[in-house]
Every structure is written in C-alpha cells, then in structure tokens.
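Fold this complex.
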Amino acid sequence: MTVTLRFFASYAESLGVPSIELDLAEGSTIDDVMKAISAMPGSGKLPPHPLVAVNHSYAKNSHVLLDGDEVALIPPVAGG
Amino acid sequence: MTVTLRFFASYAESLGVPSIELDLAEGSTIDDVMKAISAMPGSGKLPPHPLVAVNHSYAKNSHVLLDGDEVALIPPVAGG
Amino acid sequence: MIRSALVRTGIDSARLIAEVSAAENGAAVLFLGTVRSRNDGRDVLMIEYSAYEPMAEKEIDAILHEAADQFGVHCLVAEHRLGELRIGETSVAIAAAHPHRAPALDALRYSIEQLKLRAPIWKLEHYADGDRNWVSAAEGKRA
Amino acid sequence: MIRSALVRTGIDSARLIAEVSAAENGAAVLFLGTVRSRNDGRDVLMIEYSAYEPMAEKEIDAILHEAADQFGVHCLVAEHRLGELRIGETSVAIAAAHPHRAPALDALRYSIEQLKLRAPIWKLEHYADGDRNWVSAAEGKRA
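Structure:
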C-alpha cells in the first residue's frame, strides 16, 4: 500500500521536500513511517517524536495506516 | 453645617426630588442623614440600608460628614 | 494610555481598538455591551441609561487603573453611553491591548465586571406592554 | 452561527462583530492577534504565516464547536490570516456573542487558547538583522 507523507515549515526545510509517497506493508503504523523517515537526508534535525496527523487529525504512533492515507508531520505550532 | 443630598433613578422617583439641602449638627454621620431621610414622604419605598457615597466615593454609615459634603444615595447599579 | 468617558452619542468600537493598538501589542480585545431585545422574559423596546455622572467617571477611571496595576495592561479604554438606547445599540465598550493575550483578557474581564458592580449607572427598561422598570443587578441574569 | 476561515487578505474585525451580533445578545467580545514589533527581544520586520490548510480549517472549526457546546455560545466566528504580514496587521480574529457576558468571554478565551495550541499553523519571523526563525510556542512568551 502507499501513503502520502507531508512535511511543513521547519520540517520541510530540514528534509528538503514538502511531500513524498511511501510504500508500506499492510498493517504498518506511524512508527513504521517514522523509521522510514529516519533514513531520509536531513531527518537528524527532526525531534525524536514529532506530532503526527493522519487524514487531518492528530494520531498516536500506534495508529494503523490504510492505503491512500495522508500522514503529516506537524512541527510545533505557532498560530495566532 | 449643610450637606447636599442627591437621589437617583428609582430613589429619586420614590422621594419625588433629585436633591435637597440638609442642615445637620457638627459631627453628624451618614446614619444621621438616613434618619432625616426616613422622615421624607416616599422614604418607605427605600431599602433600610441603601448604599451611600460621599463626595463621589462609597462610604460607610459611620462616616463623619463635613460642611458642604455631597451625600448621594446609590440605588442598585445596572451599568454595562 | 488609559481613558474612560461617559458619552451621549454612538460608541465607535473600531476607534477604541485603534486607540489601544501599538506595535508592541500582540493582542487586542474588545467587550461590547448591547441592548438586548429580551430581559427576564419580557420584550424590551428601549432602555434609558442615567448615571451619577461625576462619580461614574471617577469609578470607571479607578477600575481601569486597578486593572492596569493588577495585570500590567496599560492600553485600556472604556466608554459608557447614557440616554435613550434602542435594541442592538452599544451601551458600553471596553478595549484592552498588551504584548500577550492573557493579561489583555484578564484586564478586560476585570474591567467589565467591576464596572457592572460599582459604576453608579442605572437603566430604566421600557417594555412592549407599556410597562417600565428600573433594572437592578440583583434581578435575574445580566449581560 | 459558527464559522471559521483561513484568509489571505486583511481581516475586517467590524464585520466579524456584526456577524455575531443579534438582538438577543447583550454581550459581544473580540480577540485580535496582531504582529508584534518585538519577540524574545528581537526586532521583527515581517512574519510569514503558513498552514496545513485543510487540517487547520478542520481543527479551528472543531475548536469553535467545542466552545459552543461547553459554554452555550452559538454566535462564534474566527478568521486566521496566512501569507506575509507586517507589524500591526491582524493575524487572527475571533468574535463571540451571547445574551450574557461570562459565556461570551469564556468561549473567546477557550477558542484563542485552543487555536494556539492545536491549529497546524506556523510562523517564520524575519528580523531587522536579516535573520529568520520558525517560531514555536515553546520558545519564549507568545501573544
């Protein structure tokens, strides 16, 4: 299955891309996504446990992903 | 000595006047003023212990008055 | 800048916000009290606001200075209208600004609550049924 | 009426107040967040606001509905601006109205605090010395 990863703000700058497609085994979780991200250049600048959203809602690292999900890494927010 | 009494809103309606001059003995307090007011027509509609201000500041009933003071009876406020 | 006034014409809330705004202030807040169409279950046509004017001015000014001291908010203005007001018209406006939001909100709340408790201002409500009533804080809920 | 939006042009706070006003509402309150000239001791020239837009819209809308449920305030609107903002420009505006003041103030405070905690919005501050920095809530105080 394939999920879309999205990066914003400082994370997008660190990783050098706003978005990638990622192939994962069925039953993969956000933890598996984080392992894949840790192999990307620039990932060393990210915190060990960034906030993550799946399909526009905050999600836990144990969240099981489905084909087509949009997974976003959310840097510390600063709205207002 | 003489003080000016001022009445507002429902109190002015009950007493039928917005203001009177009152002659008092030296050393008189707000309690003495309240006794004088209780002799006025319509005073029965006032509460037994209305809020009082002397020279634009809230004051206690034991407050000793001076010649020329302005004493106001303050009905329940409703600003805002 | 701290300023308060009793006024007899319409309150311009945008002007109050502009007055408290400043480059170092990251938060501006505004409270508007307006004449409600219903109070304690009765249909209101109009409200007449009156005040013991010199004392109300002094009391509101004192309240704003207390808020300034307590919350460190030094951009604070208040206007209270007197006279005959129709439904929807603004009877009171308070604006506060500060570099950060919490003190601005705290100062705003303190100012409106104290004003309603202490300022010698009265309202005479006129109802659709022809009756009129001096409203007091003790009777029913207040805006 | 509950409404929220991300916008790219100037926020008209008077329009937001008008939107929440209604004959039965005796209190209307407004929060404005504006770009400050100084943050953590540095002179700010400009801020670029960006967002994960569909999620930010969803989150702000959820926050307003939580405030509505919690405080019974059903006249609540919020707009957050994105793009490049200069000093003094409004980045966020929230307006609330209710028959009584306490729920309006409570809903306003809840909404701005939750928005700042949860909405996926970021700001890139540009300083007078040429430096730039992604601001996070954890660093120093916030407006």
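Strands of chain A lie at 2-7, 19-23, 51-54, 57-58, 70-74.
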